[in-house]
Write a structure and sequence with these properties.
alpha/beta, Rossmann fold, 6-stranded parallel β-sheet, two-stranded parallel ribbon, 12 helices, 8 strands
């Protein structure tokens, strides 16, 4: 690698999203120059507009690929494949892909990247802690009830900060080339147990209720959620969360040399930050 390549910027796709913004932060803290790939960036990037890809890729030495909304959506494999080809044609070989654990479609994208000729690393992650604090689940927790079409199945939820630390290291250190890291948290929790942990951290009575998938679909339709997003959410809740991921891995320890963060610690920190707090009405 020549001097220009060593100092060239790193492109972070989804650089304002859950993992991307944290990857950006860690790279900058380590003295790296970063280009954020997003629709709102100074140089816009849009997965649905291939004409935006080339200008954003130009001059990069490595790319973090986080596909929005999920690698499970129809057409994701073809879109990411076309992007990888564009990057390789532009001379960028180093790519780190964020993948989803237990998703057949995501694994097909992994195989595409592996076969592409890229210098690849794959971070295959379980469900994020931050889905409880940085998505629609935060609103449900705020209301005091989380109702989902998921039973007692256990999931090894993982902290996005752990994922970002691994991804940032992989983008910088060539020792991670050709590695697939399957990363989870250190314990198995049901959604009911996760909600109970958050309730304990907030000191508020928050309950979990399992509902039928048909009822959840109807509620999303009533709320005006787009049909493609409804399909994705139902797939994730009713297919991926069928128990296939009910085991923990040592991926975080393997890459970072430490144990992954525990859900209860995340819940306490988020609660202290007021993520799920309810404002007390002013006296009348």
């Amino acid at each position: 690698m020549n001097d220009r390549e060593e100092t060239a910027p790193i492109l972070v796709l989804g650089g304002t999203g859950k993992t991307g913004k944290r990857v950006v932060k860690r790279l900058i803290e380590q003295g790296e120059t970063v280009r954020i790939g997003s629709r709102g960036a100074a140089l816009p990037f849009d997965w649905d507009a291939p004409e935006t890809w080339g200008p954003v890729i130009a001059g990069m030495r490595a790319i973090y690929i986080a596909y929005h909304p999920d690698l499970a959506v129809p057409g994701a494999l073809q879109t990411v494949g076309a992007f990888v080809e564009t990057a390789l044609n532009a001379g960028v070989k180093r790519m780190v892909l964020l993948s989803g654990r237990g998703e057949e479609e995501a694994e097909q994208t992994e195989q595409m990247l592996i076969a592409s000729g890229a210098d690849w690393t794959i971070v295959r992650a379980s469900w994020f802690f931050q889905n409880f604090s940085e998505t629609f689940l935060a609103e449900a927790l705020h209301s005091g009830e989380v109702a989902l079409p998921v039973g007692d199945v256990k999931e090894p939820f993982i902290d996005v900060d752990d994922i970002a630390e691994i991804a940032a290291a992989a983008l910088i250190d060539p020792a991670h080339i050709g590695k697939l890291y399957e990363v989870t948290g250190p314990e198995l929790l049901s959604f009911s147990e996760a909600v109970s942990s958050i309730a304990a951290a907030t000191g508020r009575p928050i309950r979990y209720r399992q509902i039928l998938a048909a009822d959840y679909k109807a509620a999303m339709e009533q709320a005006g959620v787009p049909e493609d997003m409804i399909s994705l959410v139902l797939y994730l809740f009713t297919t991926v969360l069928d128990g296939r991921n009910a085991n923990v891995t040592d991926g975080v320890r393997q890459t970072l040399g430490r144990e992954p963060r525990r859900f209860a610690d995340y819940a306490r920190q988020a609660a202290r930050a007021g993520v799920w707090s309810v404002e007390t009405p002013a006296p009348v």
